[in-house]
Amino acid sequence: MMIEKVNKDLKVVLLAALVMLISACGGSGGGSDPVAIDSGSVSAPASDADSSPAGSGPPTTLLSGIAAIGAALDGATVEIIDASGNLVDIPDTLTGSDGAYQVTLPADVVLPVIVRITPLVGEPLLNVVPEPEAGTTEIVANVNPITNLVAETVLGDVDSTNASDIASSLATVDVTTLDATSDAIVEKVLGSSVSYDSFATDPDFIANDGTSSGSAADAILDTIAKNADDNGLSLNEQLTSFAAQDEPPKLLEDPVFQVILVSELIQGGTDSADLESGLAAIGAIDAAVEGEADIFRTIIETVPVIIESTVSSAAGLAENSELLDIAVDAAVDLVANTVEQKTDQFFADTDDLVELLASPSFQATAVDVVTVTVLPILITFVDDVDIADIQSGLESVVDNITDEAASVTSSFEYTGSSTDVSDLVAGFVEEQIAPATTLDRDALLGIQDGTTALSEVVTLVGDVTQVQEDIQDFSQANPDLVDGSIVDLIEEVPASNWDQASWDLFNWT
Predict the structure, then answer these.
(1) Closest Cα partner for 131 from 176, 161, 86, 184?
(2) Pick the CATH number of 59-200 from 3.40.630.30, 3.40.50.1000, 2.60.40.10, 1.10.8.60
(3) N or C terminus: fewer CB in 10 A for the chain?
(4) pTM
């Protein structure tokens, strides 16, 4: 019995010692390096993150957001610059694959501050973060070319790589009017009712990272980036150019921009049923007005149909996403180019464009032109394992085909009941514009390095009058492609009298 008692007492003593040892280890400030934890898999409740122990001083501020240039910025350096020009003392921080970042600002940091995101390639992007409402401990600060445009505008001519220069300019910014100034800049460039907050502070902003679709605001950036690329500019340079124009571009009110934007959303993974609501949520599309033609909503209905039909026609490219994307882009570009030429050459108004886009004849024409001219070129390279080597050459050829084809498609009038001219237009483009011989890698490489002129591959169609005369000749030679009533009309109109009035009648039965 005595031995049992001693053993029990010994166990109690040892257990107490063990508890004290564990407590001492847990309270130590030193020791080994902390274990990295994937923040995507573990998250603290907001109440725990926001609370501060008694006597610990004012709470810190959690600053987070998405860095993007349309595509998510992966591995970009995150820095915070205070009003004194100092880099705020935060742990080294890089953006994730989705462009996300998160930093905790020390309690003694006074806002406004600048968030500076430096990508692996390219100039830094900025966001001016004003002081939030009292009691706010979490701030969303997305960083992208729109926030950078606003930052550059309010800060003036500043070197974004120089923290002192940024701080000096920040001291002159009237933060009380920053919201109004930011909205005015965005309204000038984008128009509609879209606000700066949709790009800067919206927690629902999502960048396209290749695995998930981006939000509507991100798709706007992607669409502007395409425009910039066509003009040989960076996205930042393009936005700066737009903002400097005397006559604001108001891109979201431009039907051509709207066509490309809807295509970006669809190809990015947005369901067609969600297009209008997603755009309306950020003010990119205004409320419908009963009795008025609505070009944007017509585009939202038409572009998905054309993309779906093109994908269906391009079944032979189903296993090659790069080539399939070129085919879809070709159909969308033909639509956009036709809208542009209808507006510039034939002074089409909103009602005209709505009729054009809603016309089954036009929708079929856009798909048929791509099917008979672009798809045969792309299918030639469907088994090529090095598409990247010739992709820009392919895109240049296809772009030129759709540019020239738009001169043909825009020459017709389209309504809900107009004669179907899809076979006529597709046949004409195939014979008169598209490459007459099969393209090979050498030809495409020559186009890429400038040793082969595109005009040697794609035939230019000339001005509107020449197009009209050529279509007249083609129609007479191919009566099986058009409605008999059109052939009769063509035969009654000599080439010398092929004026605009008779051309307007050309498409009516």
Answers:
(1) 176
(2) 2.60.40.10
(3) N
(4) 0.83
